Amino acid sequence: MRRDAFQAIADPTRREIIQLLANQPMNLKTVAEQFNISRPAISKHIKILSECGLIIINQKGRERYCEARLNKLREVSGWVEQYRMFWTEKLDSLDSHLKKSSQQNASVKNKKVQ
User: In terms of residue numbers, what domain contains 79?
Assistant: First the structure.
Protein backbone atom coordinates (compact mmCIF):
# COMPACT_ATOMS: atom_id res chain seq x y z
CA MET A 1 0.00 0.00 0.00
CA ARG A 2 1.31 3.45 -0.94
CA ARG A 3 1.25 5.82 2.01
CA ASP A 4 2.07 9.50 2.29
CA ALA A 5 2.96 11.97 5.03
CA PHE A 6 -0.63 13.19 5.27
CA GLN A 7 -1.80 9.71 6.21
CA ALA A 8 0.97 9.45 8.77
CA ILE A 9 0.10 12.64 10.61
CA ALA A 10 -3.63 11.93 10.53
CA ASP A 11 -3.32 9.88 13.71
CA PRO A 12 -2.52 11.61 17.05
CA THR A 13 -0.43 8.69 18.28
CA ARG A 14 1.76 8.85 15.18
CA ARG A 15 2.16 12.60 15.65
CA GLU A 16 3.34 11.95 19.22
CA ILE A 17 5.77 9.31 18.00
CA ILE A 18 7.20 11.75 15.46
CA GLN A 19 7.57 14.36 18.19
CA LEU A 20 9.39 11.89 20.45
CA LEU A 21 11.76 10.79 17.71
CA ALA A 22 12.43 14.35 16.53
CA ASN A 23 14.55 14.87 19.63
CA GLN A 24 16.54 11.64 19.52
CA PRO A 25 16.49 8.13 18.04
CA MET A 26 14.87 5.52 20.29
CA ASN A 27 14.48 1.79 20.27
CA LEU A 28 11.00 0.32 19.80
CA LYS A 29 10.72 -0.67 23.46
CA THR A 30 11.46 2.87 24.64
CA VAL A 31 8.93 4.32 22.21
CA ALA A 32 6.27 1.82 23.32
CA GLU A 33 6.86 2.65 26.99
CA GLN A 34 5.77 6.25 26.33
CA PHE A 35 2.21 5.17 25.47
CA ASN A 36 -0.67 3.38 27.13
CA ILE A 37 -1.27 1.10 24.16
CA SER A 38 0.14 -2.30 23.28
CA ARG A 39 3.57 -2.78 21.77
CA PRO A 40 2.03 -4.40 18.64
CA ALA A 41 -0.10 -1.27 18.18
CA ILE A 42 3.01 0.91 18.45
CA SER A 43 4.79 -1.36 15.96
CA LYS A 44 1.92 -0.87 13.53
CA HIS A 45 2.19 2.92 13.88
CA ILE A 46 5.97 2.69 13.44
CA LYS A 47 5.47 0.63 10.28
CA ILE A 48 3.15 3.26 8.80
CA LEU A 49 5.58 6.06 9.67
CA SER A 50 8.38 4.07 8.07
CA GLU A 51 6.37 3.41 4.91
CA CYS A 52 5.67 7.14 4.67
CA GLY A 53 9.37 7.94 4.97
CA LEU A 54 8.97 9.90 8.20
CA ILE A 55 11.19 7.54 10.17
CA ILE A 56 13.87 5.02 9.38
CA ILE A 57 14.58 1.92 11.38
CA ASN A 58 18.17 0.83 11.98
CA GLN A 59 19.08 -2.55 13.39
CA LYS A 60 21.82 -2.37 16.04
CA GLY A 61 22.47 -5.79 17.46
CA ARG A 62 19.18 -7.13 18.74
CA GLU A 63 17.58 -3.70 18.98
CA ARG A 64 15.72 -1.77 16.32
CA TYR A 65 16.17 1.99 16.58
CA CYS A 66 13.78 4.49 15.07
CA GLU A 67 15.03 7.82 13.80
CA ALA A 68 12.90 10.72 12.52
CA ARG A 69 13.28 11.93 8.94
CA LEU A 70 11.34 15.18 9.13
CA ASN A 71 12.16 16.42 5.63
CA LYS A 72 9.06 14.55 4.38
CA LEU A 73 6.97 16.96 6.44
CA ARG A 74 7.96 19.73 4.02
CA GLU A 75 5.30 18.32 1.67
CA VAL A 76 2.68 18.83 4.38
CA SER A 77 4.08 22.23 5.31
CA GLY A 78 3.92 23.44 1.71
CA TRP A 79 0.33 22.30 1.34
CA VAL A 80 -0.72 23.93 4.61
CA GLU A 81 1.12 27.15 3.75
CA GLN A 82 -0.88 27.73 0.58
CA TYR A 83 -4.10 27.51 2.58
CA ARG A 84 -2.71 29.63 5.39
CA MET A 85 -1.96 32.38 2.90
CA PHE A 86 -5.42 32.03 1.32
CA TRP A 87 -7.25 32.24 4.66
CA THR A 88 -5.04 35.03 5.98
CA GLU A 89 -5.95 37.10 2.93
CA LYS A 90 -9.66 36.33 3.32
CA LEU A 91 -9.68 37.09 7.06
CA ASP A 92 -7.74 40.32 6.55
CA SER A 93 -10.33 41.35 3.96
CA LEU A 94 -13.16 40.49 6.37
CA ASP A 95 -11.45 42.50 9.12
CA SER A 96 -11.16 45.52 6.84
CA HIS A 97 -14.79 45.21 5.82
CA LEU A 98 -15.96 44.97 9.45
CA LYS A 99 -13.89 47.97 10.50
CA LYS A 100 -15.24 50.02 7.60
CA SER A 101 -18.79 48.92 8.39
CA SER A 102 -18.32 49.77 12.07
CA GLN A 103 -17.01 53.23 11.20
CA GLN A 104 -19.96 53.84 8.89
CA ASN A 105 -22.40 52.75 11.61
CA ALA A 106 -20.72 55.04 14.13
CA SER A 107 -20.93 57.92 11.66
CA VAL A 108 -24.67 57.31 11.10
CA LYS A 109 -25.31 57.24 14.86
CA ASN A 110 -23.40 60.50 15.35
CA LYS A 111 -25.52 62.21 12.67
CA LYS A 112 -28.75 61.02 14.34
CA VAL A 113 -27.63 62.36 17.73
CA GLN A 114 -26.89 65.83 16.36
Answer: 72-105
